[in-house]
Amino acid sequence: MDAREWLGLQPTHNPFRWYLPVVPGISTGGGFLFGGCGLGAAISALEGTTERPIVWATAQYLSFARPPSILDIDVTVAVQGRQTTQARAVGHVGGTEILTVNAALGCRDFPESGQWAQRPEVPPPMECPVREPRWNTGDSILNRLDQRWALTPQPMDGARTADRPGQCAVWTRMPDLLGVSAPALAVLGDYVPLGLGVTLEHEITSNSLDNTIRVANIVETEWVLIDIRVDVVAHGFGHGTVFLWAEDGTLMATASQSALIRLWKGPNSGYRPATPGADVSEEEVRP
Questions:
Q1: What are the pLDDT digits (tens) for 217-239?
Q2: CATH code for 3-106+123-283?
Q3: What's the pLDDT score for residue 138?
Q4: Of 68, 109, 123, 156, which sits with the fewest C-beta atoms within 10 Å of its C-beta?
């Protein structure tokens, strides 16, 4: 299946309106729509309406969407040029706005191209340790992902230890998905909270306030290396960048996020610690 089928996004008779049934398979262990799935669905709707590929898209997360609700996605084309389109998509459940996405789409010929960023040297996926949940997250997106620790802040058997502070990486594949696409990469770009959890000394939980993805070269690859780099933490917020690499070293996209950080309040609080192996972004809670 392609990413649209994987997410469950459906068209309507109106080419500018789509809808997404919010089910556990695209939700967090906390029981609400996973932010990357919301952005991925919006990108798929934008590409379907404009019939152009995404260049960049940025989502602002505003509220919850919980199973078994329906997320309606309305697309507005602001500017339609010969080669590029500027558009936005708004996802809402009834009268409650869940996320707003602004985007540019298109493809242009240009005589030069190049990649200057380099993928970190890590073991191949099948040699890396499995990223196991520390808690039973029930029926959630985690059950649809295969993840393996490739780069960790502290030594872990089978993974490489990061050379720089604030960096970790996990190999990830979506076994049911046939082919990588921009919507799929948007799902995998929502992982700055994981980096915050393994970087900070305190046990924390965090939730992403936004998610921006910039798409470069999408190539065939079974595994995607989610290379997470925490840039700064200040005033209770964390900011970081995610590099999404193919197995052959191609940089397919970058993502960036800001997240609100909370101290973990204990096992009965509903918040869970964010250490290697824990489900950080999957347990985030919207403010």
A1: 999 999 999 999 999 999 999 99
A2: 2.40.160.210
A3: 66
A4: 109
